[in-house]
């Protein structure tokens, strides 16, 4: 297969593919039922549940799990199954939400760990089976799987199966996880639903509107459950909030922004973003990507004109543009849409590609209506469930592809090769 040399050629191919797509319009199946994943009947209350791992710094991993009854925050781990050469201790917390009290949330950072290596781990005390995860490679190639607005429906299950089959290294989630909407046991169900994947590969998430969970006068603090359950490595990236942070993996600098916390010029998040962008060394991390929840570019009728789209874009788009961010991924709109390189509404060869990938499986997706005609900056748009794959091949090229849930089979329905600005002399870094 020949490799397209220029962006122009890629666009021609893609526009042609887009036209073909219209001719064979996909009739998407109807919504599917919500799921609730319970702990097995009669399970011991010390059984570890909702295990997930996330990257911390260059060579560490945070392991998080919940038990209904007390067990120590201690992980035993090693590279040989059943033989745990290392152990580490961490912390235990819990939170309350009106009449709900969470189980014990265990948080242990383990490492240093070798790259591209399978580690086996189990928990001290109680009845713990063995789990395993694989660390990401030290350098390219690396495969990210990306899907926002995951929720927990029968469609989510299908999306997770397809992601699991993709042999990805790191999962990125641009907001809207459990859709608990203040009903806290739904968070526990979500933790159990994603555990088979999230215990095996790092899951890096940012928050969406469904993580806020404010009950006026009763529980006015936002993000209580999200922050307690999904501790991301914000401390290591100089951030003071779990709602925005960055991390580096295999030559990629990933920035997770918070669409539902202050983003105005001068705000803590804004100042942190400025300083984080200054720290990026494109000779070390040629790729620079950003995740937000509410998309800054969107031609669906859903979620138009929201402050998190309009004002956050107004505040931060210039910073990302000047830093030559390669791709901005968003969720929120329950559909897939890919834009060309765009800045300030216009085509700009030195601007990021914007991609909406809010199609993980939530029930209450958009009505499926798009604004007509399709804007020139929008290359491909479709209201179907699915997930994306961002495969960074080397310091110059990455392949983006979108995989639609075609009933229960994953079908690659859009793809494009991207070149990083770090290897493109025409856009001064
Ligand atoms: C973890 O805590 C246990 C119990 O207090 C202790 O025996 C063990 O030495 C600690 N492990 C590490 C690595 O500090
Ligand atoms: C908490 O309150 C909700 C709403 O009134 C109720 O549905 C739920 O069963 C209660 N949960 C507990 C643990 O008491
Ligand atoms: C990067 O990968 C692409 C696609 O396989 C290949 O054409 C290109 O030569 C590679 N570039 C480098 C610098 O290795
Ligand atoms: Fe959302």
What is the compact description of this entry?
The chain is of the alpha+beta class and 429 residues long. The protein has helices at residues 7-23, 154-165, 185-198, 224-229, 268-279, 307-322; strands spanning 49-56, 60-67, 74-78, 86-89, 91-93, 96-97, 100-101, 104-110, 118-123, 131-134, 142-146, 170-174, 203-206, 245-249, 252-256, 287-291, 327-330, 336-343, 346-347, 353-357, 378-382, 386-392, 397-406, 409-419.
Explained architecture:
This protein is of the alpha+beta class. It folds into 2 domains: 5-35 and 138-423, Metallo-dependent phosphatases (Purple Acid Phosphatase, chain A, domain 2), CATH 3.60.21; 49-134, Immunoglobulin-like. It has 6 helices and 24 strands. The protein has helices spanning 7-23, 154-165, 185-198, 224-229, 268-279, 307-322, and strands at 49-56, 60-67, 74-78, 86-89, 91-93, 96-97, 100-101, 104-110, 118-123, 131-134, 142-146, 170-174, 203-206, 245-249, 252-256, 287-291, 327-330, 336-343, 346-347, 353-357, 378-382, 386-392, 397-406, 409-419. Helix 5 runs parallel beside helix 6 (307-322). The longest helix is centred in the first third of the chain and has 17 residues, at 7-23. The radius of gyration is 21 Å and the shape is globular. Residues 1-24 have low confidence and may be disordered. The structure holds 2-acetamido-2-deoxy-beta-D-glucopyranose (3 copies) and fe (ii) ion (FE2). One 2-acetamido-2-deoxy-beta-D-glucopyranose is lined by residues 99-100.
| Helix count, DSSP H or I runs of 4 or more residues | 6
Q: How many strands appear in the DSSP assignment?
A: 24
**Structural category:** alpha+beta
CATH fourth-tier homologous superfamily of the largest domain: Metallo-dependent phosphatases
> What count of structural domains?
2
The profile of the biggest β sheet is:
8 strands, mixed
The helicity comes to 10-25%
Give the terminus-to-terminus CA distance: 31 Å
Bound molecules: 2-acetamido-2-deoxy-beta-D-glucopyranose, fe (ii) ion
CATH topology-level fold name of the largest domain: Purple Acid Phosphatase, chain A, domain 2
Unreliable stretches: 1-24
CATH class of the largest domain: Alpha Beta
């Amino acid at each position: 297969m020949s490799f397209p040399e220029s962006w122009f050629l890629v666009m021609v191919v893609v526009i042609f593919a887009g036209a073909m797509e219209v001719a064979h319009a996909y009739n998407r199946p109807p919504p599917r039922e919500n799921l609730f994943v319970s702990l097995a009947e009669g399970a011991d209350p010390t059984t570890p549940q909702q295990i997930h791992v996330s990257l911390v710094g260059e060579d560490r991993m945070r392991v998080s799990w919940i038990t209904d009854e007390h067990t120590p925050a201690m992980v035993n781990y090693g590279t040989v199954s059943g033989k745990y050469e290392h152990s580490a201790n961490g912390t235990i917390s819990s939170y309350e939400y009106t009449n709900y009290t969470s189980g014990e949330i265990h948080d242990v950072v383990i490492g240093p760990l070798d790259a591209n290596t399978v580690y086996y781990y189990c928990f001290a005390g109680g009845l713990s089976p063995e789990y395993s995860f694989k660390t990401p490679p030290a350098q390219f190639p690396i495969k990210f799987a990306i899907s926002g607005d995951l929720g927990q429906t029968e469609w989510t299950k299908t999306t997770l199966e397809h992601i699991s089959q993709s042999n990805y290294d790191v999962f990125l989630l641009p907001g809207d996880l459990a859709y608990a909407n203040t009903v806290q046991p739904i968070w526990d169900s979500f933790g159990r639903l994603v555990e088979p994947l999230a215990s095996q590969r790092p899951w890096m998430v940012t928050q969406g509107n469904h993580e806020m969970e404010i009950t006026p006068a009763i529980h006015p603090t936002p993000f209580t459950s999200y922050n307690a359950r999904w501790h991301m490595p914000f401390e290591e990236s100089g951030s003071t909030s779990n709602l925005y942070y960055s991390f580096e993996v295999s030559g990629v600098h990933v920035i997770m922004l918070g669409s539902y916390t202050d983003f105005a010029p001068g705000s803590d998040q804004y100042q942190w973003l400025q300083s984080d962008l200054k720290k990026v060394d494109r000779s070390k991390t040629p790729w620079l990507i950003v995740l937000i929840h509410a998309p800054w570019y969107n031609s669906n009728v859903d979620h138009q004109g929201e402050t998190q789209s309009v004002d956050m874009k107004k505040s931060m788009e210039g910073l990302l543009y000047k830093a030559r961010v390669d791709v901005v991924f968003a969720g929120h709109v329950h559909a897939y849409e890919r834009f060309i390189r765009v800045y300030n509404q216009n085509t700009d060869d030195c601007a990021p590609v914007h991609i909406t990938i809010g199609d993980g499986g939530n029930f209450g997706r958009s009505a499926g209506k798009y604004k007509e005609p399709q804007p020139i900056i929008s290359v491909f748009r479709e209201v179907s469930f699915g997930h994306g794959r961002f495969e960074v091949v080397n310091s110059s090229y990455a392949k983006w592809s979108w995989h639609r849930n075609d009933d229960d089979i994953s079908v690659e329905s859009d793809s494009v090769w991207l070149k990083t600005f770090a290897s493109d002399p025409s856009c001064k870094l």
